[in-house]
């Protein structure tokens, strides 16, 4: 039997144990969380190492859950889900390391954190659309409490906005799925069953249903113009939550688009595909330009996440094999890099300097005070710009090439987005970390007077983990592409790709 | 078939048990426990009542099935399931009452609760208009008294009066409707009425009668536009009474009217699967569902009082449950029963938390819940389960209820029919609903306690009742086949 489903159960058990441990001491909760998060990651890696890539989902567990509705507890994996499961383990482990300083209500914090992680694992492993939805909702609710209770800047507003956007998106998804299920005469929520049921509906209905499901999921993926929850939510969230949020939760949306929406109705996809593509490229450029104008370092990264997720949506919209495999690779890459960026800004810098304003950071030479933070941010920034040697490079390159074949205009505009990304990243590095003492008129006291507590071991370990992952995939993208490419041969995805093939 | 009194007696063992329990509780209170403190008298009465309710539940579960006494009562699966869950909800309410402030006449309070439960379980099985009316009135009159039991607060008296006046009006409508039905069909037995209705087709007089029946239905389940009593009653009544009014009474009401409409007037349902205009009660129910969904969800957004918020959320849920009634004919009672009973669990729990929180001070405004996670982690944890279930978050039971009801509604001709469109609307409105539910949870889990608000000590019995309620919600959500597979 497979180890992969145990990632879900271990994370849930960890949530309960962390809650119990937190009643004794914050340390007990932390260690429980670290052990279960890394344990689940190891299970994911072990499960992945035994996995033989092939087309289609390989069943892990298949039980009847709600017989009267035809809902099954069906877990399955293919190369795409495997990539994201491994990413989840990595992001969760790093997230725990970067929240080592959470002291207040630590038990509840880690319990919510691990529940969120369990939900994310569940989504990536679900092969029944309703089960997928259940895990998706399980992942949404803890985010609200993580942000509202432990967040910073404008946290209650950010948390509520995020929860409402996510939930509005997911109710669109539920409406679409139930519609297909009930009207199409489907007897279950398996992806293939739903796709068959949808094929029996009129073209008009299919177009509406596809829009409900796709844009419902795309809301969580931060597609323009439904992205506005993302920057405020990311900024308000505590470090570990923004790492998970940008790192994996936004991927839930993109994964939902790819796994549920596309196969559901190739006809609907063909109708909407141009719109989605343009929204994606507009998002890339627009969010990049907005990021260029931000004064708060976390907002820069928040908007950069929207911009980078635009590449994922572009790859899905282009729907050539190269673009889609690039999109999945970009999900992994962005998950790692955004996690690192948020960790440096939220934990290493903000928790020590208590400011994220570029003008104030400029007044203190972070590169001298916190050399490790500056180095990590530079690496993450360079990776984020898509320089060769880091995971962003193969990902964005294959998306652009894959898109070029079908829609050169999108590729051209998106390439412009790469330039904008370089600009805002370099600006953030220069102003935020290498400001030096000569900045005129800054309010903060001058450089040498400030003493900041040194970077802890946990932070260094977390950062090295993430840097290692982005470099490893940058140098050997085949590690993941060997999983992803066979999965694209599945009949459901092939049908969706054929529907829009030029 | 000649009616057998022995059979009737055996079938009515649950009712007998409840009445005996009420009389024993009253008798003991008048004799043995007379000089004790109010709190002790309450707890002793509750113990007697709990034994009676448990015995009634057991009898209802194990007892006879099928039509009883010439079809006056019918104990089919739907009726038995409703009876058992009404009794379970009553038992949980008794557990909640254990920790609430004792009323001035504790034994009477408990006895009236048992009378109400008697009426409710009779409602679940009634199949003859006379018994329908009698059981409804027995339950309603007891609930009016329960609403007004807190004589220290004028709001409680106001609640009882409003509930009573609206209820009396609704009862008058119902009785007038029934008399017209009898006049048109010549019978008070639902199967005979059904024969006549299908023979005669849509008869204008019958439609008038049906409208009157629907008025009473709307009142009983607090569906718009007959909901006006609900916010005031939920706010003014003692929390324990509100728990019973919002849960068991609603479940029994839906079972009663679901049976009445489909068994008695199924032939006069009108167009179910299309938007075509035709006489019948389904279009009226659809309009009521639409009004309830919109009014309940949007009015709840504006509430600052947590009980009024729960009342408006109850109106919104009534709208969803009406979809379950509309689809009862084609999908069977499983979705409606699952939704109503798990909704009942969540509301009993929510009012139970409010009742327990009142031990530590006032609990009316949403902000009175502030810092509940510090003041009592148990209450905060249970409240989270109840509220999230009301919001329909999986894997809690509230989600499966919505799923079952909405997919049953969509089965009725998809979005070509009113039920399907309403289901889509209800799903969209659940995002609105999440906002006000999160506002409650934000106070309970995120906000800091008000200065001077101390810890809340929850008595063990109440803690057990709340934990059992939360446990059932999780269990039925994770393993819904337990309830959905009953029918």
Describe this structure in words.
The complex is a heterodimer of chains A (502) and B (487). Chain A is mainly alpha-helical and 502 residues long. Helix content of chain A is 76%, strand content 3%. Chain A has one domain (5-500). Chain A contains 21 helices and two strands. In chain A, β1 (58-66) and β2 (71-77) form a beta hairpin. In chain A, α2 (26-49) packs parallel to α4 (106-125). The longest helix of chain A has 33 residues, at 321-353. With 487 residues, chain B is an all-alpha fold. The longest helix of chain B has 32 residues, at 154-185. Chain B is globular and about 70 Å long. The mean pLDDT of chain B is 91. Chains A and B meet through β1, α5 and α6 of A and α19 and α20 of B.
Mean of residue pLDDT of chain A? Answer: 87
SSE string of chain A, helix = H, strand = E?
HHEEHHHHHHHHHHHHHHHHHHH
Strand content of chain B: under 5%
What proportion of the residues of chain B is helical, as a percent range? over 70%
Biggest sheet of chain A, in brief?
2 strands, antiparallel
Number of strands of chain A: 2
Q: What portion of the residues of chain A fall into strands of 2 or more residues?
A: under 5%
What helical percentage do the residues of chain A reach? over 70%
Whole-number total of structural domains of chain B? 2
Largest sheet of chain B: 2 strands, antiparallel
Greatest interface (CB-CB under 8 A), with counts per chain = A-B, 34 and 34 residues
* Discrete helix count of chain B: 22
As for the number of domains of chain A, it is 1
End-to-end C-alpha gap of chain A: 42 Å
Number of helices of chain A: 21
In angstroms, what separates the terminal alpha carbons of chain B?
A: 27 Å
Name the structural class of chain B.
mainly alpha
Mean pLDDT value of chain B: 91
Strand order of the largest sheet of chain B: 1-2
Low-confidence stretches of chain B: none
Oligomer: heterodimer
């Amino acid at each position: 039997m497979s180890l992969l489903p145990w990632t879900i159960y271990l994370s849930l058990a960890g949530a309960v144990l962390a809650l119990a441990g937190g009643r004794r001491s914050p340390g007990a909760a932390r260690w429980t969380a670290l052990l279960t998060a890394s344990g689940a990651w190891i299970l994911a890696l072990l499960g992945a190492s035994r996995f033989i890539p092939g087309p289609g989902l390989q069943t892990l567990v298949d039980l009847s859950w709600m017989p009267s509705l035809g809902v099954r507890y069906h877990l399955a994996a293919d190369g795409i889900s495997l990539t994201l499961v491994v990413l989840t383990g990595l992001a969760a482990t790093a997230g725990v390391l970067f929240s080592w300083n959470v002291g207040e209500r630590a038990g509840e914090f880690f319990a919510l954190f691990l529940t969120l992680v369990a939900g994310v694992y569940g989504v990536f492993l679900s092969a029944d659309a309703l089960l997928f939805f259940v895990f998706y909702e399980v992942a949404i609710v803890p985010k609200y409490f993580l942000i509202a209770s432990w967040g910073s800047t404008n946290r209650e507003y950010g948390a509520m906005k995020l929860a409402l956007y996510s939930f509005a998106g997911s109710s669109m998804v539920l409406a679409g799925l139930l519609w297909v299920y009930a009207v199409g005469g489907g007897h279950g929520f398996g992806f293939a069953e739903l796709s068959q049921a949808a094929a029996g509906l009129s073209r008009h209905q299919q177009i509406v249903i596809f829009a409900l499901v796709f844009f419902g999921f795309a809301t969580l993926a931060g597609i323009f113009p439904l992205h506005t929850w993302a920057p405020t939510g990311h900024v308000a969230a505590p470090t570990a939550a923004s790492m998970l949020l940008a790192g994996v939760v936004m991927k839930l949306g993109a994964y939902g688009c790819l796994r549920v929406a596309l196969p559901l109705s190739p006809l609907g996809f063909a109708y909407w595909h141009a719109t989605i593509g343009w929204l994606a490229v507009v998002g890339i450029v627009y969010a990049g330009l907005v990021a260029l104008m931000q004064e708060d370092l976390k907002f820069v990264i928040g908007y950069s996440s929207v911009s980078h997720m635009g590449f994922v949506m572009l790859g899905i919209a282009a729907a050539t094999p190269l673009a889609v495999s690039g999109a999945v690779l970009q999900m992994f890459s962005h998950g790692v890099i955004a996690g690192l960026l948020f960790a440096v800004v939220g934990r290493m810098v903000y928790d020590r300097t208590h400011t994220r304003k570029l003008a104030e950071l400029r007044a203190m030479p972070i590169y001298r005070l916190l050399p490790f933070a500056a180095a990590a941010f530079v690496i993450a920034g360079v990776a984020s710009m898509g320089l060769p040697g880091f995971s962003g490079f193969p990902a964005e390159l294959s998306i652009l090439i894959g898109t070029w074949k079908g829609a050169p205009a999108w590729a051209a505009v998106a390439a412009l987005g790469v330039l904008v990304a370089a600009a805002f990243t370099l600006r953030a590095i220069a102003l935020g970390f290498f400001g030096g003492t000569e900045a005129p008129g800054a309010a903060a006291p001058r450089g040498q007077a400030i003493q900041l507590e040194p970077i802890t071991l946990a932070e260094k370990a977390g950062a090295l983990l993430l840097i290692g992952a982005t470099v490893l995939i940058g140098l050997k993208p085949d590690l993941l592409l060997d999983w992803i490419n066979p999965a694209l041969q599945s009949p459901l995805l092939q049908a969706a790709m054929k529907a829009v093939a030029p | 078939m000649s009616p057998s009194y022995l059979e009737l007696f055996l079938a009515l063992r649950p009712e007998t048990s409840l009445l005996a329990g009420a009389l024993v509780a009253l008798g003991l209170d008048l004799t043995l426990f007379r000089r004790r403190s109010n709190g002790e008298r309450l707890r002793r009465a509750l113990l007697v009542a709990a034994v009676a309710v448990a015995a009634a539940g057991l009898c209802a579960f194990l007892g006879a099935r099928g039509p009883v006494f010439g079809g006056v009562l019918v104990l089919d699966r739907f009726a038995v399931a409703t009876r058992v869950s009404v009794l379970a909800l009553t038992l949980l309410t008794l557990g909640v009452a254990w920790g609430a402030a004792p009323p001035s006449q504790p034994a009477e309070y408990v006895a009236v609760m048992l009378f109400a439960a008697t009426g409710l379980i009779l409602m679940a099985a009634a199949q003859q208009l006379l018994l329908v009316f009698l059981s409804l009135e027995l339950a309603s009159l007891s609930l009016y008294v329960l609403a007004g039991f807190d004589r220290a607060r004028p709001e409680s008296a106001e609640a009882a009066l409003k509930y009573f006046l609206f209820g009396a009006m609704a009862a008058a409508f119902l009785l007038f409707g029934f008399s017209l039905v009898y006049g048109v069909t010549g019978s008070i037995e639902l199967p005979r009425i059904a024969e006549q209705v299908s023979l005669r087709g849509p008869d204008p007089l019958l439609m008038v009668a049906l409208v009157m029946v629907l008025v009473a239905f709307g009142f009983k389940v607090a569906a718009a536009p007959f909901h006006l009593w609900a916010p005031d009653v939920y706010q003014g009544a003692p929390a324990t009474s509100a728990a019973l009014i919002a849960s068991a009474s609603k479940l029994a009401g839906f079972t009663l009217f679901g049976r009445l409409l489909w068994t008695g007037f199924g032939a006069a349902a009108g167009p179910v699967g299309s938007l075509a205009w035709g006489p019948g009660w389904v279009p009226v129910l659809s309009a009521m569902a639409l009004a309830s969904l919109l009014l309940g969800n949007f009015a709840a957004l504006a509430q600052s009082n947590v009980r009024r918020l729960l009342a408006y959320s109850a109106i919104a849920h009534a709208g969803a449950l009406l979809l379950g009634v509309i689809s009862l004919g084609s999908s069977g009672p499983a979705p409606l029963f699952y939704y109503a009973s798990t909704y009942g669990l969540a509301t009993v729990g929510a009012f139970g938390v409010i009742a327990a929180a009142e031990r530590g001070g006032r609990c009316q405004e949403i902000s009175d819940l502030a810092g509940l996670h510090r003041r009592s982690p148990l209450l905060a944890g249970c409240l989270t389960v109840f509220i999230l279930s009301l919001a329909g978050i999986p894997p809690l039971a509230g989600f499966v209820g919505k799923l079952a009801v909405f997919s049953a509604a969509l089965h009725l001709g998809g979005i070509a029919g009113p039920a399907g469109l309403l289901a889509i609307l209800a799903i969209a409105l659940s995002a609105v609903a999440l906002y006000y539910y999160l506002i409650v949870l934000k106070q309970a889990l995120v906000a800091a306690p008000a200065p001077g608000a101390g810890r809340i000590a929850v008595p063990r019995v109440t803690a057990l009742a709340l934990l059992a309620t939360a446990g059932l919600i999780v269990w039925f959500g994770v393993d819904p086949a337990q309830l959905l597979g009953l029918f």
